[in-house]
Write a structure and sequence with these properties.
Layout (H helix, E strand, L loop, with lengths): L7 E4 L5 H12 L4 E6 L3 H16 L3 E6 L5 H15 L4 E4 L14 H28 L5 E6 L14 H19 L4 E8 L14 H10 L8 H12 L10 E4 L9
Parallel strand pairs: 1-2, 1-4, 2-3, 4-5, 5-6, 6-7
Helix pairs in contact: 1-7, 3-4, 4-5
């Protein structure tokens, strides 16, 4: 049985990592249309072209939209192109995030500003634009899912800029759940732990740190993008039709591992 049959799904940051894994899983679960955003540089452009080809070979109509998610116009264009192609948006996965690891005392103010603009402002922009669409479409409603992080609960010496944006994203989705429930719009957050993606590839090259993070988990391994895609699809599906305002931790047990 497919979990998201016929749904139109919008995913930001879809060229790689968690976004890409979500696109593939939604295709497997019966989504009929995918609206995929990517940054638009040389690398992500090649990645998204390959993904689009693979998805369309599987029979899933796919549109791709480039742009810097930190700019409001990017979110407006994502929604405009998506609705023009498919007529509606049923699911949003707000996934774009950056974490340029930096010591707090020497962090350039530009690092703080860019991290906030991409992670928090970008999430706010796309959530708002998609929510406006979900409120006016017929039938009304949909599922908003933001990729937050357990870093919004926990501290990291080089994440004094990143953690606050993720805490804010979790809270944003709680407030959106309250504001949008009357329109049939559900809003939830996924809080990954350490997932092996490009965001932490350089950081995890430190063998000692990698082993430490693995040992922090209860399942004895780092997460993969596919480990996040499953919970995302669940929250998008009708199986989660009574779930809104939730913050789902998907971290292999890091958060509860006090010892």
């Amino acid at each position: 049985m497919s979990l998201t049959p016929g749904k139109i799904v919008c995913i930001t940051g879809a060229s790689r990592g968690i976004g890409r894994a979500c696109a593939v899983e939604f295709a497997k679960q019966g989504a009929s249309g995918l609206i995929l955003h990517y940054l638009g540089d040389e690398i992500t452009t090649e990645e998204i072209k390959v993904l689009k080809k693979d998805l369309e070979e599987k029979g899933v109509r796919t549109v791709i939209i480039p742009g810097d998610i930190a700019l409001l116009n990017t979110s407006k264009e994502i929604v405009e192109v998506g609705v023009k192609e498919f007529g509606r948006i049923d699911v949003l996965v707000s996934n774009v995030g950056i974490c340029p690891f930096s010591d707090f005392l020497t962090m350039p103010i530009e690092t703080w500003e860019r991290t906030r603009q991409v992670n928090l402002d970008g999430t706010f922009y796309i959530v708002k634009e998609v929510a406006v669409q979900m409120e006016k479409q017929v039938p009304q409603g949909g599922s908003l899912i933001a990729i937050s992080s357990i870093s919004g609960f926990l501290g990291g010496a080089q994440q004094c800029h990143y953690g606050p944006t993720k805490a804010a994203i979790t809270n944003l989705m709680q407030n959106c759940a309250v504001a949008l429930g009357k329109y049939g719009i559900r809003a939830n957050a996924i809080l990954p732990g350490t997932i092996a993606t490009d965001i932490n590839k350089e950081d995890l090259k430190d063998t000692a740190k990698r082993e430490y993070m693995i040992n922090r988990t209860l399942l004895g391994r780092l997460g993969t993008p596919e480990d996040i895609a499953g919970p995302v699809v669940f929250l998008a599906s009708d199986l989660a039709r009574y779930v809104t305002g939730a913050s789902l931790i998907v971290d292999g047990g890091i958060f509860v591992n006090f010892q």
